[in-house]
Design goal:
heterodimer, A: 400 residues, Rossmann fold, formyl-coa transferase, domain 3, four-stranded antiparallel β-sheet, B: 388 residues, six-stranded parallel β-sheet
């Protein structure tokens, strides 16, 4: 069984924020229809990213600029449990699909606005790309260090955090609906996510000393919590926060003398002489391979880990045992390996119902479910109100 | 019903960030959250952020190393809707708080276990510390640029934050399922799984995959990256589609760029070495005015851009204020502490912030008498024995 079996989600979102919220519901068993414009979600140009954020869904292509297209959308919405939208503020009002306009037709709908800047405030109509929030919120300056060049985060921090919060909001809305009846509108935004992803940093009071941990080439926090380079040109992260870790670390590396060295005798002394300590540890670790050091540190109960690339994770036994990856065949891209379902439940399973859809792959099937006759469907296709998938192109690898 | 989780009781045995943050998110959607700490307190108590992750909760101290402490915890678990813990795998079982033991007492319990690396597999017993998760998950090496480049340690505790979000979602899903089945269950969230979920778009593998090449730590492409104004201040230019690129080209009177092979692959796949040349050309243009002048000009032309600024500046941002994402809580020892608001809003059931984090054991007596109906004598005995 899946938690959201039978639940119908109308997903009108594009890019990352939005699609990922619908994906989290899909992973719990919901049937998600992704509604796309005729030229598709713009993120389809990033074939990999598109698959990662849209696996499990069906694709319905409709031109919402046409009244007959909006009628299809209204019919889909009137039968849905959940609607998700992430357009610029105002776009949905113009289409007449904002919450106030549709609640009467479906009072049980849980309507998630997963916005950029939020529905209020001076910037609400501005476009909402993730790095704009990384820049404005302090995430880039925090990583780059004060007075130094800011650093761009490769993970689209807020674009992923926002839909996780949005999925939480939808789940709350569904639970409330079970308990009291009636749907409601739920809102979150990249603005909210950028704050919530700095919950411990977005903080101020009289006398607060703000840490400045970032830097252009930051390897860690201090000599006893950082990366070191190994003889085979790998990097390992070593953590020795407690006295016993420090002693074991020194012994493991053949640096026993350091434990008796006044410069490193206490945590305070070590903090003062951090650079010296880092140099000594770096020298010792540079003299051994990563495997040698990691094995010795594990025996000495000093926490340490190899810094790895994503590519190295695909065949990792731990990743496999915890089922963190999914692997399936996609009609265009062949064997695709990507991240699986996140949460694990003892009495339910997650599900990935299908690979990411081709543009308009399920248009006819979904229209039929919305009680359009085959004659009407043919008409909608001829009138270019709805669109279905073209047969796959000859050379799959060229499509992306 | 005032809030979505009104009437639900959550026992929060969490420490540091992920468990407490997940429980705080639940508290502010209406759940009654009891933070249960050992006599020495949550090890994060000394950290200022402790106040944020533990606000809107009541505090109880229980010594789980003593039999009477474990009995009190089990009595609470028998009445609770949700239990949150982020102990190392196996530790909860040793404290009498394992899922198998508790489900017998309370089959409706939703039991959340947050671990560093998951309940199984070869890395299961690695300490679930943020930097080690960053190393194992690949995010530090990927942030650093791979190959011969060193990894980049990420300053924000991202995997803890994402794990908290995912945990709040999964617990609510389990409560929703319970409405239908009448049964609770165990939910497992790992920091590793959470940070990999956040890396979904980067970590995948298929034949013919096109990857955005690493072009330095200031962005992904010449038209999607950080630039400096003439005053040395930084801002991000986000020409995320060809319409914005066209608006920009028009603004700076370089419409020839739109079909210049230099920019082929725009917006994201302008490959090396072209990207360096294009970046230099754009940077030169931006050096003609200050950052703030450019921001004004760009915004008037509907071109996405934003200043790179420190978090304290963001705390005064009108957009943050308009969305109620900054608020103040009075703490007896620190005064007014400005901090985040409630990040998810249900229109009919808005969230609530109940106030400051509890002092160690502040509500021990109230909770044991109110929730368990224990009398003064029994509570006094526990106090004397050092259990509460």
């Amino acid at each position: 069984m899946h938690a959201l079996d039978g639940l119908k989600v109308a997903d009108f979102t594009t890019m990352i924020n939005g699609p990922y919220a619908a994906l989290m519901l899909s992973d719990m068993g919901a049937e998600v229809v992704k509604v796309e414009p005729p030229d598709g979600d713009p993120w389809r140009v990033m074939a990999g990213g598109f698959m990662a954020y849209n696996r499990g869904k069906r694709s319905l292509v409709v031109d919402l600029k046409k009244e007959a297209g909006r009628e299809i959308a209204r019919r889909l919405i009137s039968r849905a449990d959940v609607l998700i939208e992430n357009a610029r503020w105002g776009v949905w009002h113009k289409l007449g699909l904002d919450y106030e306009s549709i609640r009467e037709a479906n009072p049980n709908l849980v309507y998630l606005s997963s916005l950029g800047h939020g529905s209020r405030g001076p910037y609400r109509s501005l476009p909402g790309y993730d790095p704009l929030f990384q820049a404005r919120s302090g995430q880039m300056v925090g990583q780059g260090g004060r007075g130094k060049p800011p650093v761009f985060h490769r993970i689209a921090l807020n674009d992923l955090g926002c839909p996780m919060l949005g999925a939480f909001g939808v789940a709350l809305g569904l639970l409330a609906r079970e308990r009291t009846g009636g749907g409601q509108r739920v809102e979150t935004s990249l603005t909210n996510a950028s704050v919530a992803l700095q919950a411990g940093e977005f903080l101020d009071y009289e006398g607060f000393i703000r840490p400045d941990l970032g830097g252009p080439d930051v390897l860690g926090l201090n000599a006893l919590s950082r990366y070191y380079q190994t003889a085979d040109d790998r990097w390992i992260f070593v953590m020795a926060p407690k006295e016993k870790h420090f002693i074991n670390l020194c012994q493991t590396l053949g640096l026993q003398s350091l434990t008796a060295d006044a410069r490193f005798a206490t945590p305070e002394a070590r903090a003062t002489n951090d650079a010296d300590l880092a140099d000594l540890l770096a020298g010792a670790i540079r003299g051994r391979t990563a495997d040698e050091s990691l094995a010795a540190l594990a025996r000495a109960d000093v926490p340490a880990a190899l810094g790895r690339t994503h590519d190295e994770l695909f065949d990792d036994a731990h990743i496999r045992v915890n089922r963190l990856l999914d692997e399936r065949d996609h009609p265009e891209h062949g064997r695709v390996r990507l991240i699986g379902v996140g949460p694990a439940f003892s009495d339910m399973t997650g599900v990935i119902r299908r690979p990411a859809p081709m543009l308009g792959q399920h248009t006819e099937e979904v229209l039929a479910e919305l009680a359009y006759s085959s004659k009407e469907i043919a008409r909608l296709l001829t009138d270019r109100v709805a669109f279905k998938a073209e047969p796959p192109a000859g050379n799959a690898s060229e499509v992306s | 019903m005032e809030q979505a989780l009104s009437g639900f009781t959550v026992l929060d045995f969490g420490r540091y960030i992920p468990g407490p943050y997940a429980a705080m998110l639940l508290a502010e959607q209406g759940a009654e959250v009891i933070k249960i700490e050992p006599p020495g307190g949550d090890p994060a108590r000394g950290h200022p952020a402790f106040r944020v992750f533990n606000r809107s909760k009541r505090g109880l101290v229980l010594d789980l190393k003593k039999q009477a402490g474990r009995e009190a915890a089990q009595a609470l678990a028998a009445k609770a809707d949700v239990l949150v813990q982020n102990f190392r795998p196996g530790a909860a079982e040793r404290l009498g708080l394992g899922y198998e033991a508790l489900r017998g007492l309370n089959p409706r319990l939703v039991y959340l276990a947050i671990t560093g690396f998951g309940p199984a597999g070869p890395y299961r017993d690695i300490a679930g510390w943020e930097p080690l998760v960053g190393a194992v998950s690949g995010v530090h090496v990927e942030q650093g640029g791979r190959g011969s480049l060193p990894p980049a340690y990420i300053v924000l505790p991202l995997s803890s934050y994402y794990a908290a979000f995912m945990a709040a979602y999964a617990v609510t899903i389990a409560l929703y399922a319970r409405e239908k089945t009448g049964r609770g269950q165990r939910v497992d969230i790992s920091l590793l799984g959470a940070i990999l979920a956040a890396s979904s778009g980067l970590m995948l593998n298929f034949e013919g995959q096109i990857r955005i090449p690493f072009t330095g730590s200031q962005g992904v492409s010449p038209i999607y990256r950080l630039y400096q104004g003439s005053d040395g201040q930084w801002f991000f230019l986000a020409l995320g589609n060809l319409t914005f690129f066209a608006k920009f080209a028009l603004l700076i009177e370089r419409v020839d760029w739109l079909d210049d092979p230099l920019f082929e692959g725009a917006p994201f796949l302008i490959l090396p070495p072209r990207n360096e040349q294009a970046t230099a050309m754009i940077q030169e243009i931006f050096l003609t005015r200050t950052r703030d002048e450019w921001l004004k000009i760009l915004r008037e032309a509907d071109i996405p851009c934003a200043p790179a600024q420190p978090v304290e500046t963001y705390m005064d941002d009108p957009q943050v204020e308009a969305n109620e994402m900054v608020l103040s809580i009075e703490e007896p020892d620190l005064g007014r502490v400005r901090q985040m608001g409630v990040p998810v809003r249900l229109d009919m059931m808005p969230g609530r912030v109940l106030g400051r984090a509890p002092r160690l054991g502040e509500h021990s007596r109230d909770i044991l008498s109110g929730l368990l109906g224990w009398g003064d004598d029994r509570i006094e005995t526990l106090r004397k024995e050092g259990v509460i």
